[in-house]
User: Fold this.
Amino acid sequence: MAASKRVALVTGGTRGIGRAVTERLAASGIRVAAAYARDVDAAEQVREVCQQNGGTVTLHRGDLGDPASCGTLVDNVLEQHGSLDYLVNNAGMVIEQHYGDITADDWHRHLSVNLSSAFFLTQVALTHMTEQRFGRIVNIGSVTGLMGSPVQIPYGAAKAGLIGLTRSTARAVARKGITVNCVIPGSFDTQLAQELTYTNRELITSMIPLGRWGRPEELAHAVVFLLDDLASYITGAVLTVDGGMSMGG
Ligand SMILES: NC(=O)c1ccc[n+]([C@@H]2O[C@H](COP(=O)([O-])OP(=O)(O)OC[C@H]3O[C@@H](n4cnc5c(N)ncnc54)[C@H](OP(=O)(O)O)[C@@H]3O)[C@@H](O)[C@H]2O)c1
Assistant:
């Protein structure tokens, strides 16, 4: 199938980094199913912008912290578009908390939205991708999963888990025409970053060798690179897009 006829599911594809991925894919003719949870205005806006530029975007609302919603989402995408070729597991959330303030619900919520949703979506998507012997899956991690954060404990655990999920899934489907990779953002100026309670922006900037925060389109570029037909020999890779932050020092 020509790359431009393909269908992408981008979770959290309506704001921030996911929106940049949606716009970039839609601009190249790929039909995009953009999933989101609550912000209807943001969702309508990205659909409109993409349509004005000749792209096709369908919107899918649901809480991906619920495994049943993950199955329903993939079914809806297949029903509306007839195919699913690219899965970008990007939806994420973080609430900054100190150790003693984290409840069992906080722990489970961070794991279900940031990690389990990627597993459940992948599990359902693989049925279709295996049948067609083609698929590209990109999981969006976080530098917190590599470097840790004293106020993002469950989030850091979930994002580190995504690396293990990426590599194990990559091995499981390696002979089926499906690649699975992980892109790790550093600091990007999105709503998620703006709502962080304890993080000190200046301190973060001082930790970035390139000396600035990233732009969502710079992250989208890495995702699109991994979705490309010629990325067929890349699987199980973990690609940091963080201005050098995770090099440490
Ligand atoms: N920004 C950064 O500096 C940074 C750094 C490292 C990693 N990341 C990762 O990059 C990804 C995108 O982050 P972002 O900064 O672009 O975040 P964002 O601007 O807050 O956007 C988050 C997107 O995810 C959706 N979402 C959140 N919870 C959901 C749920 N339970 N079910 C379905 N959709 C849900 C949101 O939908 P609604 O609009 O409806 O809420 C929104 O579309 C996340 O995985 C994040 O962890 C970001």
